[in-house]
Structures are given as C-alpha cells and as structure tokens.
C-alpha cells in the first residue's frame, strides 16, 4: 500500500484529501499544516503545499525532502514557471488543489511508481548543467555563489560583501557563463545537493 505524508496550510483541505486518498486505497501517515514537524521516513510520496513557507526556505526544504521520497506539490493554480523551477529543484509533480479525487490519486500513484505528474504540460527542463568547472571561478565569484546558494537576494549579497548591487550582477553573469547555468534555481539546487559548496567563502578580489 502506498504511504503518503501530507503538509498543507488548510486543515480542512488536508482532511478532505486524507479521505479521498484513504478511500482510494492509500495509507495517509499524517496530514499537518506545517513543515516544522519531521517528515515521515516511511512515506512513499510527500504531498506538500509550497505556500507553507517563503520561497527561499521552501527551495531548501524541497531539496532535502526529495532525498527521502518523491514530492508532489499542491498548488492553487497552474503556473508553468513555478513548476519548472520546482522541477529543477527536484519536485516530481504538481496537482491543482481543485483537481478531482481521481486525478489526485493518479498523481500519487504515478510518483510512487517512479514517474511524474504535472497539472497541464510537463515542465520543459534544460539539460542538466555541468558543474565540474567550478574551479574556474575566482575567489570572489565563489563567495557570491555561496551567498546565492543560501537564498540571499543580490541586494543582501551586496550588503554582506560590501560591494554594489551592480557588481553582484556582474559576478552572477560571469558565474552563469563559466558554469553554463541558466538561473538561480540551478545554482541553489547544485549547492544543496552538494555538487557545489554552499559554504564557498573564497577570499580576495578579482
């Protein structure tokens, strides 16, 4: 029997979802309105509402959760850009909160079987970037990369490193060019998964 752990901001919706899944032959281990409690290590699929925490915190949480079990996002509307970003971070699917019970069960079973389920068209992901060229980055670029991995904005990075926002933008462009990375989500994912160090703290200036 497929085991599911639900995390959604609405206790009413979570309760209804629990009923649907249980009647569909699935085993709901828990249904909570928070991400602060530890996820069940016995779950085959996590159903998670991205709105429970801020975007930066959720990106970090998602990368950790996907190491334990596939994650199905519970979303209020179909947003292709959001789906693509979360897919890049490791999510395996997204289902609209207004979807039918049959659609929700189909989505859960798809993830449990090793597949994906995206409401609407599946995200069109770029090929996985090659991060082996990280040693081509300068010490200052490594510093900026480390701050990006922690979810800081360009303005926050500028304040922390005592440089201008324009300079941060320049470093980010260089990093993306050297590593062939398209967006910040890819940088964050690489750092969280250990491909790059989130603690990159090189010293010196370019």
Task: Provide structural commentary.
The protein is of the alpha/beta class and 206 residues long. The protein has two domains: 3-118, Response regulator (Rossmann fold), CATH 3.40.50.2300; 132-192, Winged helix-like DNA-binding domain superfamily/Winged helix DNA-binding domain (Arc Repressor Mutant, subunit A), CATH 1.10.10.10. Helices cover 43% and strands 13% of the residues. It has eight helices and six strands, in the order E-H-E-E-H-E-H-E-H-E-H-H-H-H. It has helices at 11-23, 55-65, 80-89, 101-112, 139-149, 154-161, 165-179, 184-192, and strands spanning 3-7, 27-32, 45-48, 71-75, 93-96, 117-118. Strands 2-1-3-4-5-6 form a six-stranded parallel sheet. Helix 1 (11-23) links the parallel strand 1 and strand 2 (27-32). Helix 2 (55-65) crosses helix 8 (184-192) and helix 5 (139-149) crosses helix 7. The longest helix has 15 residues, at 165-179. It is elongated and about 55 Å long. Residues 121-130 and 191-206 have low confidence and may be disordered.
């Amino acid at each position: 029997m497929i085991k599911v752990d639900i995390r959604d901001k609405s206790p009413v919706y979570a309760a209804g979802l629990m009923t649907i899944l249980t009647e569909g032959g699935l085993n709901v281990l828990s249904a909570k309105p928070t991400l602060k409690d530890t996820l069940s290590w016995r779950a085959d699929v996590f159903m998670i509402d991205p709105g429970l925490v801020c975007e930066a915190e959720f990106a970090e949480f998602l990368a950790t959760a996907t190491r334990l079990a596939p994650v199905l996002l519970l979303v209020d509307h179909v947003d292709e850009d959001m789906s693509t970003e979360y897919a890049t971070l490791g999510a395996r699917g997204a289902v609209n909160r207004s979807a039918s019970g049959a659609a929700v069960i189909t989505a859960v079973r798809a993830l449990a079987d090793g597949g994906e389920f995206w409401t609407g068209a599946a995200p069109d992901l770029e090929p996985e970037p090659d991060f082996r060229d990280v040693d081509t980055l300068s010490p200052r670029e490594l510093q900026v990369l480390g701050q990006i991995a922690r979810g800081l904005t360009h303005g926050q990075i500028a304040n922390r490193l005592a440089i201008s926002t324009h300079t941060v933008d320049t470093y980010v462009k260089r990093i993306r060019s050297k590593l062939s990375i398209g967006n910040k989500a890819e940088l964050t994912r690489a750092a969280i998964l250990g491909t790059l160090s989130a603690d990159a703290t090189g010293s010196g200036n370019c």
